[in-house]
Design brief:
Layout: H1 6-19, H2 28-41, H3 47-56, H4 58-69, H5 79-96, E1 102-106, H6 112-121, E2 131-136, H7 139-147, E3 149-150, H8 160-166, E4 167-170, E5 173-176, H9 178-181, E6 184-188, E7 200-205, H10 214-227, E8 228-236, E9 250-254, E10 257-260
Parallel strand pairs: 1-2, 1-7, 2-6, 7-8
Antiparallel strand pairs: 3-5, 4-5, 8-10, 9-10
The structure holds S-adenosylmethionine.
S-adenosylmethionine binds near residues 112, 136, 141 and 207.
Length: about 260
């Protein structure tokens, strides 16, 4: 059992008041270790003088949010699962639904995931029929998403035809085309606090739930389930399989993909 550190408890409370982010819902040990190492790297002695500085310095606060939220992403992250999406999940949803699919990339970070979804769907639908809703807590990350400039490395998994079609070189970087960008709507949302939009056929929430406590995750599974249409699909990250999905009204359809069970 971890002993309670009053300084960290105060830091969490004060931070929640300052930016409305509740660190109690993130795995404690991991988050505390990360913040401690960030503050000492920046020359602060402890949580209290660091918080005083965060209050006064908006740049430092942005740096903190950026670090705490861990924005790493890439196009077609975990390629095998994107192949399952293309070969099985999307064709089944397309056959089942009349018309375009409603898709949500929850915790979209710098845009690689929602833009990957648009590119994948472009193989099934006209671009103008594709709309992906993308949300994240970190506005700085979504600003980068809207700029759409990426490293070559982040596109390693992307099929070469999609890369050639939808990216242009910009110095040593790659710029994604407006045709893809314009199909995504970004919105700031805290998955731990805000109410969830509804009516989706597919929800991707990948590589963020690992940072949350079990209680927070379970609440999210319930909310995502309610956000899905009948037989809608929930796509999670490679280390985020749901234990006992039936408890949350899901059944596992493929590894890392869960289908909403319809209640009789
Ligand atoms: C590692 S990235 C995942 C990006 C993408 N889904 C992927 O799998 O590559 C984690 C993202 O979760 C976001 N995040 C962290 N806590 C959040 C919260 N409470 N609500 C919404 N997004 C959150 C971070 O800002 C970050 O962009």
């Amino acid at each position: 059992m971890e002993t309670i550190d009053p300084k960290y408890e105060d830091f969490k409370k004060n931070l929640n008041r300052l930016i409305n982010v509740d660190l109690n819902l993130y795995k404690e040990k991991q988050m505390k270790r990360r913040i401690s190492s960030l503050l000492s790297r920046n020359g602060y002695k402890g949580f209290d003088d660091y918080f005083e500085a965060l209050k006064k310095d908006s740049e430092l606060l942005d740096q903190f949010i950026n670090y705490m939220t861990i924005n790493v992403s890439e196009f077609y992250r975990n390629l095998a699962q994107w192949n399952v999406l293309k070969d099985t999940i999307i064709p089944a949803l397309k056959a089942e639904r009349n018309g375009p699919l409603k898709i949500w990339s929850a915790a979209c970070s710098t845009g690689e995931e929602p833009y990957s979804l648009v590119m994948l769907l472009s193989q099934f639908y006209n671009l103008r029929e594709i709309n992906v809703f993308a949300s994240d807590l970190d506005e700085g990350a979504m600003k980068k998403a809207k700029e759409g400039i990426y490293t070559v490395k982040s596109t390693t998994n992307l099929p070469i035809d999609l890369k050639n079609k939808y990216f242009t070189k910009e110095g040593s970087m790659l710029k994604i085309s407006n045709d893809i960008k314009s199909r995504v709507e970004f919105k700031k949302m805290d998955l731990l606090k805000d109410s969830y939009p509804k009516g989706f056929d597919l929800i991707c929430c990948r590589n963020v739930m690992i940072y949350f406590t079990d209680e927070a995750k379970e609440e999210m599974y319930r909310k995502f389930n309610q956000s899905l249409m009948p037989y809608g699909v929930f796509f999670v990250g490679s280390t985020e399989q749901i234990i006992s999905p039936d408890k949350f009204n899901f059944k596992s359809s493929k590894t890392f993909f869960y289908e909403k069970i319809e209640k009789k």
